[in-house]
# Entry
Amino acid sequence: MHSFTYESKDSNNNSEEILGLLQFYTNLSRNVSWLIGDLDLVPLYLGDYHPSGKIEPPQRVSLTLIQKFQEEGFLRLSLKEIEEMLEDSLAVHRAVFVCLPEHVEVSHFHGDAESTSLQHESALHEITVLDDLIMIHSSFKLQPSMKSGE
# Structure
């Protein structure tokens, strides 16, 4: 497993950065899904009043997902489902994202963003977010470009 750590460009507005990493590592493998644990999201502020008088659209982060996470302690989502979840999120303050082949069954998972070891024995990639640090473990020796705008 190859590992590296870097500091987020903006830990208070990093949903797009995290999504870019998840897309990058998803594209390296076929037929995968992501386990998500120790999740702390900051939703976009929709406010009570829009200056133009328009009614704000409701948040799309599904209550079903939130309820499932609270009940089971983890989520197993496709990249598309994660994109929908992060679309209405401003930041990810804590999270463990573990990329697994779809055929691997998981009945329980306890992610810990403060752990320094791999959190699932079948992980192809693991991305851990802990405030401003992003730690990546991957079975590939590649790493995404950290340049602005990519």
About this structure: The chain has three helices and six strands. The chain has a mean pLDDT of 83. Residues 38 and 112 are 6 Å apart (CA to CA). The longest strand covers residues 89-101.
